[in-house]
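$ ./design --mode recover --in tokens.txt
reading tokens...
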């Protein structure tokens, strides 16, 4: 299932049968409504719920750091500049040569399937998407994170996974053998009234899980410090956030990764309305007036290999 196929079941009160691949069952209109808070996805697969996180590795957005992560354009002063893969490409031009952030899909209309193969080798998302590496990533609700669409393109909730601070955790359909780097296409999203475009700072945790000696899951958490993203400035302004596995300050093998989780907290988010400054909450279950979450479009392990 991909982002476009989700439309075909959007108004049906049935179960998404293709989701049984990941033991997840959803009503056909779940997570795709017009209201912000009910669209929050916070599912954790059972093995990840029981996992132990044994190590945390801090990451900073500093080119000269031994434990660095890249973030969008690398410019964080204006919301309309916080997009693309410019910073990663400046650090590793060999991995981005000839690729563009936009366009990301051939769009023949919402709900209309289109062959994307002509964008391979041109569009970053279509060239590096997980379904091109391993077709098993094309099944289940989270397949929308693996099909190369890194912007809304008017698809709204059909293109995204909306997260609050609880985040989500998923088992992969295959076991990783190797990967050079990891990335996510992200932006901030909020239920504040229009216009409310602004910058938001998040602390984001990405945890990768392997099986221990007794088959239990053991996690290594990568803590992204002060990730600056645009919120509500545009659904098309997404940023590639991630890191190279050989740039984390210590040795870490990607061999054996079987799942991942993402969670976060807001460091700073200021929204002004009527002369009042609000600080939107990252907890969608509370009773605060406004909320802010991560809007996740795509998960990448470019040029990775899997068992």
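writing sequence...
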């Amino acid at each position: 299932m991909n982002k476009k196929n989700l439309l075909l079941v959007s108004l049906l009160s049935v179960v998404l049968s293709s989701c049984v691949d990941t033991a997840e069952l959803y009503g056909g209109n779940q997570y795709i409504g017009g209201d912000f808070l009910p669209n929050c996805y916070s599912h954790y697969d059972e093995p990840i719920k029981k996992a132990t996180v044994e190590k945390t590795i801090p990451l900073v957005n500093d080119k000269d750091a031994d434990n660095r992560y890249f973030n969008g354009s690398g410019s964080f002063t204006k919301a309309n500049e916080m997009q693309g893969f410019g910073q990663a490409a400046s650090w590793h031009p060999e991995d981005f040569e000839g690729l563009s952030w936009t366009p990301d899909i051939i769009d023949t209309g919402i709900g209309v399937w289109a062959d994307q193969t002509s964008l391979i080798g041109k569009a970053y998302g279509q060239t590096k998407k997980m379904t091109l590496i391993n077709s098993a990533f094309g099944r289940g609700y989270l397949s929308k994170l693996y099909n190369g669409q890194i912007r809304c393109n008017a698809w709204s909730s059909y293109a995204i996974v909306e997260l609050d601070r609880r985040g989500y955790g998923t088992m992969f359909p295959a076991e990783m053998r190797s990967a050079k780097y990891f990335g996510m296409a992200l932006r901030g999203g909020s239920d504040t009234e229009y216009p409310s475009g602004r910058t938001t700072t998040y602390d984001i945790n990405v945890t990768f899980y392997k099986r221990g000696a007794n088959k239990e899951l053991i996690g290594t958490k990568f803590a992204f410090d002060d990730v600056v993203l645009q919120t509500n400035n545009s659904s098309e302004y997404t940023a590639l956030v991630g890191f190279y596995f050989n740039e984390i300050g210590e040795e870490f093998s990607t061999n054996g990764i079987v799942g991942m989780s993402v969670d976060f907290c807001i460091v700073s988010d200021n929204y002004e309305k009527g002369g009042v400054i609000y600080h939107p909450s990252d907890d969608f279950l509370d009773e605060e007036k406004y909320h802010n979450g991560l809007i996740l479009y795509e998960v990448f392990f470019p040029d990775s290999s899997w068992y």
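exit 0
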